[in-house]
Amino acid sequence: KMAADTSVEILQKVLENEILQTTKVVEEHLDAEMQKLDQMDEDELERLKQRRLEALKKAQQQKQEWLSKGHGEYREIPSERDFFQEVKESKNVVCHFYRDTTFRCQIMDKHLTVLAKKHVETKFLKLNAEKSPFLCERLRIKVIPTLALVKDGKTQDYVVGFTDLGNTDDFTTETLEWRLGCADIINYSGNLMDPPFQSQKKFGTSFTKLDKKTIRGKKYDSDSDDD
Question: Thioredoxin domain location, by residue (predicted)?
């Protein structure tokens, strides 16, 4: 037991030392930045301020442009024709192919509503799979719900059912956000190497892309037990 206690103490010391080192580096960096600012003359400070203002202005204009194209809210589009128009005018689009009778589509709706407000850089749409047979066949969508992730007008990736989300109906919004981050369809600020569900051992950390070859026919398989 003594040996175990000693190991814990050593580990604690190492960790404390790591934290002190990190704090020191951060403090040194801040000191250097402060010194740089102190040494700037008024003209340089003014130029720095102008650059920051320009960047803020540009970001604000970009946000307004996104909002004018229907970003910032999770919307239903009525037809296949609308889908083509919507993906043409936005760089990043997430489209949920749903069906009214599938309970899991409602779960997906709840999370997408939150993410649409948070990630204004991406357009979030939903389309009734039964009203869009041509698109479903073309994109080989067979499991409902499926998210088609469209970048620059091309479908790059799919989130099929809840397989990539920990295989549970109780997945968090953060888990879906992480998965969309893996596809680079949203600006993800977290660590992609650290999935939100990793701490739950029964869930793996890998996600699968849709294997197009394995999908045949037009019938939808509902990824839900209650169907």
Answer: 53-181
